[in-house]
Amino acid sequence: MSTTSAASATRREVPATLCIDAEAELAAMAEWLAGMVRGVGMRRVVMGLSGGVDSAVAAMVAARALGPENVVLLSMPYGSGRHAASAPASLNDARAVAERLPEAEWRMIDIAAAVDASAAASGLHDLLAADPANVRAVLALGNLKARQRAVTLYTFANMAGDTLVLGTENRTENLLGYFTVHGDAASDLEVLSPFLKTEVWQLAEASGVPPVVIDKAPSADLWPGQTDESELGFTYSEADQVLAHYWPAFGAARPRGESIPEGIPEAVAAAVLARVDATAWKRAAKPVYPGRSAR
């Protein structure tokens, strides 16, 4: 059965097990973020504003923590390039979020030229020209876009000198391995890591994220028509109920073999767990050779 509470009312139905006190969480997140940034002698954060709900919530938290004048929002569409452009709706949604934070600095940077240069140098253009439907090549182009956005964010932070890169990854995407290594996973600090996607939507509602962003189908917009749930093969609601069952707290895991959440098909639960297992290497610490003397 799905329900909502006064503290976590949202436009989407939320299973009772996933309801949070969104206002209390937002206050705690802002306090933590302010302490972390100022504790290392920095003043600002820079982050990607994609038009999606995760970056929108992170922007709202950053503005609350540091003051909007200390938040830099970079929207980085793939615009005029050799391949299909990012969806215009994503930039429009990013603009709607930026308008809620008029004192924050918002910039639009077209990453097409940089992406195309890397794609040409690596031979990726040739692969796509030979077969535009080549799955590996399409995925490589999507990952290249994500990594170019990380390069842009860190270049800005380096030039500013007093700025950290704020990430936007949530716990659902982390456990499912639904992120690009050295791309959207690249950051100096994160505020959404303890929260499942279903919980992020509650935070969005409580923090004043525009309804158009909350209601849209989640998409990384890495290729035309892409949506997260169609690519994953299950909904975020289904995934979150399974993940919350086996990982009831950030960093804590339950033994497998227990009953699955009520109302979740066994095949869906198996698919979620299989993806968690298959992407464990993306979350693990980088393997480092210890040297012969350590053996």
Strand order of the largest sheet: 5-4-3-6
Main β sheet profile: 4 strands, parallel
> Could you state the order of secondary-structure elements as H and E?
EEHEHEHEHHHEHHHHHHH
At the first level of CATH, what is the class?
Alpha Beta
Provide the CATH superfamily: HUPs
- Seen as an oligomer or otherwise, the chain set is single chain
The tally of structural domains comes to 1
Strand content: 5-15%
Relative helix content: 40-55%
Gyration radius over CA: 20 Å
Distance between the termini: 54 Å
Classify the secondary structure makeup into a structural class.
alpha/beta
- The count of β-strands is 6
Coarse shape = globular
Per DSSP, the total helix count is 13
Tell me about this structure:
The chain is an alpha/beta fold and 295 residues long. The protein has a single domain, classed as Rossmann fold. It has 13 helices and six strands. It has helices at 22-39, 53-66, 88-100, 112-122, 124-130, 135-160, 171-175, 197-207, 211-215, 228-232, 236-246, 266-278, 280-283, and strands at residues 2-3, 14-15, 44-48, 71-75, 105-108, 163-165. Helix 2 links the parallel strand 3 and strand 4 (71-75). It is globular. Mean pLDDT is 91; it is low at 1-10.
